[in-house]
Design a protein that fits this description.
- It is extended, with a radius of gyration of 28 Å.
- It is an alpha+beta fold.
- The chain is built from 16 helices and ten strands.
- The longest helix is centred in the first third of the chain and has 28 residues, at 2-29.
- The protein folds into three domains: 2-36; 50-213, Penicillin-binding protein 2a (Domain 2) (Alpha-Beta Complex); 219-342, Beta-lactamase (3-Layer(aba) Sandwich).
Length: 353
């Protein structure tokens, strides 16, 4: 009898031990994961009563704020005063699990909702059942430059980015076509589903943030990478190259022409320094051919190409192994002649704005 009791006691102890371990995993080890997962319905329920913080532009212009609805179940809804000018940047926040959030509203969700940073004050407030106010988020975008970018792009599909070369601050980031996030958040609760679905099916794919999610040939801006690779491969700024208007590519009948159609102004032969000053295509094509694709790839990687970008909004990875159509992540099989086009930011090179 004692043996049976001992077995039952051991079994019960093991069950309680397993429950205790599981409890520690859920409430301690994975607490942050569960508390920040946007699919967690309890998280949404808790946030319904929180007045989220504002999103401000560099000059203090309000880009996103919470507006009282008068509905006890959904007391707040997000409003975007600048509408489609900042639509992709702010994104949207809805009080519906079916519509979720996008843009900064998504990537800074915990901060705007007051769940982060995890201060002692926030912890005490949670214990006492008090609501934590949302935090205000201020970004570096200049509304005046943003408007200029939008006007310059007009109705064309594409993207514009303006970056401070000294600090790296993003001063303008615009994509066309765009959308007004108020269209999604105007209806409270699950009323957002219909307008969001309409945007998803709209002509021009307005929900696509082309500045961060599309890849384009960088063109002459990529010559900075080419020049770096050349200088690290026994070349100097005074290394000279022939200066033809048309470069015949080796092992092929193809040619590469200067954008202007003529020779580059700066003499024949032309030095790398002078070629850089006038952005000479045929010179940088020759630099790329001398370097070779393997060395080229290695230098490009140090510039962040072929690596995930640590950015405030989800961004596609730039690459030097694109196939026609712009898809990345294919094994680089660049024929030597085509490396010339890589040197001027064409062919297999694709980058975000």
């Amino acid at each position: 009898m004692n043996t049976s009791i001992r077995k039952v006691t051991v079994a019960i102890t093991l069950v309680f031990l397993a429950l205790f371990i599981n409890l520690q995993v859920v409430q301690v080890a994975r607490s942050h994961q569960y508390s920040t997962d946007p699919r967690n319905p309890r998280l949404l329920t808790a946030e319904l009563n929180v007045k989220r913080g504002e999103i401000l532009a560099a000059d203090g212009t309000v880009l996103a704020e919470s507006q009282a609805t008068g509905n006890k179940n959904y007391p707040w809804r997000r409003v975007y005063p600048e509408k489609n000018l900042f639509g992709h940047i702010t994104g949207y926040y809805t009080n519906s699990v079916f519509c979720g959030s996008a843009g900064l509203e998504s990537s800074y969700d915990a901060y705007l909702a007051g769940r982060e940073p995890a201060t002692s004050t926030n912890f005490v407030d949670q214990l006492l059942g008090r609501k934590n106010p949302g935090n205000t988020l201020q970004i570096t975008i200049d509304p005046k430059l943003q408007k200029i970018a939008a006007q310059a792009l007009g109705n064309q599909r594409g993207a514009v980015a303006a970056i401070d070369p000294d600090t790296g601050a993003v001063l303008a980031l615009y994509s066309s076509t765009t959308y007004d996030p108020n269209v999604v958040t105007k209806a409270i609760g699950d009323g957002c589903v219909k307008p969001k679905t309409a945007l998803e099916n709209a002509k021009g794919n307005p929900l696509l943030f082309r500045a961060t999610q599309e890849r384009y040939p960088p063109g002459s801006t990529f010559k900075i990478v080419t020049a770096t690779a050349g200088l690290e491969t026994n070349m100097t700024r005074f290394t000279s190259f022939p200066n033809p208007s048309v470069l015949r590519l080796p092992q092929t009948n193809q040619v590469l022409r200067n954008f202007t159609g003529g020779v580059c102004k700066r003499g024949n032969p032309i030095t790398m320094l002078n070629a850089f000053e006038v952005s000479c295509d045929t010179t940088f094509a020759q630099v790329a051919l001398r370097i070779g694709i393997d060395r080229f790839d290695a230098v490009a990687a140090r510039y962040g190409i072929d690596k995930s970008l640590n950015f405030d909004i989800a961004a596609a990875k730039s690459c030097m192994d694109a196939v026609p159509g712009g898809a990345c992540n294919v094994p680089p099989q660049v024929p030597r002649p085509q490396t010339a086009y890589s040197g001027i930011g064409q062919f297999n090179v694709r980058m975000t704005a």
